[in-house]
Amino acid sequence: MAVSFDPAGYEQQLAAKRERLTELLAPFSAPEPAVFASPREHFRLRAEFRLWYQDGQPHYAMFEPGNNRQPILIEQLPIASRRINELMMPLLEACKADPELGRKLFQVEFLTTLSGEALVTLCYHRPIDEQWDQAARKLAEQLNILLIGRSRGRRRVLERDHVLEELQVDGRTWRYQQVEGGFTQPNGLVNQHMLSWALEAAGHNTDDLLELYCGNGNFTLPLSTRFRRVLATELSKSSVRSALENIADNQVENVTLVRLASEEVTQALTGVREFRRLQGIDLSGYRFGTVFVDPPRAGLDPGTLELVKGYNRILYISCNPETLAANIAELQASHRITRCALFDQFPYTHHMEAGVLLERRT
């Protein structure tokens, strides 16, 4: 999808998002939101391009929503990280020069990090085999990248299928395994702001944290320093694998991770159902004072809403302020907003991330 790139109008766009969030939260007497701006360019750590062929030559292409017949041919993408822009044309030229790399190549995906790593996935409309490996290894060495090849039913990983990110939060460096194709926050610098805000909002606690939708442990790791223990849950198998690696790599010892959907967590904590995946975990031994949620765009389902009402504090990160407001409307009888924030993960679009801390009314 093409994105309008307008650095000169950035402050006006950000002000409009702030006004929109303020209006959405006004019925709940929310305080003024803290606003965390994005860099105006080179902020996006991921990018995906289709290839469009003219006169037999490939070009990177993006498309307006709903129109896959009118490509916008590009050589650089100002919103993408500097590393992606450095790699785009040398990679394409190498694929044009070597038929083993370029034949029936239809898509290129970039995943980069603040720590400087880059993983590139080349997608083909043909089988790839050991001959591709040989050509790809030369390219990976030449460009100093990690490289993966994909074709129908096949994936060829030359070295590893993930990058290692490093994020600075509250004076500490956290290392994260980010897997190809898995969900990661696309704007690394704003993600650091999100993590720092969440830590400040959480404060220092002597009780425990329940985290739903933990993903690869993005918030789990820093938040573990602010609670006695953390019970984190996630449904995606690949995210759980990455989270476990990240917990071990960062030597975090007070987090227990369970693969459960949010609805299953509700059933387990309310005693409606027992799960084999919870064997050996004494839920009654936890003293949860805070619940942290970072749900999908649809927000919290009715069962999870009822669950979170039972906690003194609800720390909520949202990628959809409309469903956030709808959820708060269901919580306002028991909780009030004491902090809120706007995180501009997606400049030049209408999308934004928001954070609120809700505390039980006394």
From TrEMBL:
Record-linked Pfam families: tRNA_U5-meth_tr
GO biological process: methylation
Keyword annotations of the record: Methyltransferase, S-adenosyl-L-methionine, Transferase, tRNA processing
PROSITE patterns found in the cross-reference section: SAM_MT_RNA_M5U, TRMA_1, TRMA_2
One Gene Ontology molecular-function label: tRNA (uracil(54)-C5)-methyltransferase activity, S-adenosyl methionine-dependent
E.C. no: 2.1.1.35
Catalytic class of the enzyme: transferase
Binding positions for S-adenosyl-L-methionine per the UniProt entry: 185, 213, 218, 234, 294
Matching InterPro entries: MeTrfase_TrmA_AS (IPR030390), MeTrfase_TrmA_CS (IPR030391), SAM-dependent_MTases_sf (IPR029063), TrmA_MeTrfase (IPR011869), U5_MeTrfase_fam (IPR010280)
Active site annotation, chain numbering: 319, 353
CDD domains with a match to the protein in the record: AdoMet_MTases
Catalytic activity from the UniProt record: uridine(341) in tmRNA + S-adenosyl-L-methionine = 5-methyluridine(341) in tmRNA + S-adenosyl-L-homocysteine + H(+); uridine(54) in tRNA + S-adenosyl-L-methionine = 5-methyluridine(54) in tRNA + S-adenosyl-L-homocysteine + H(+)
Residues passing through the membrane, by range: none
Family listed: Belongs to the class I-like SAM-binding methyltransferase superfamily. RNA M5U methyltransferase family. TrmA subfamily.
Record's function text: Dual-specificity methyltransferase that catalyzes the formation of 5-methyluridine at position 54 (m5U54) in all tRNAs, and that of position 341 (m5U341) in tmRNA (transfer-mRNA).
Entry protein name: tRNA/tmRNA (uracil-C(5))-methyltransferase
Organism: Halopseudomonas formosensis
Gene transcribed to yield this protein: trmA
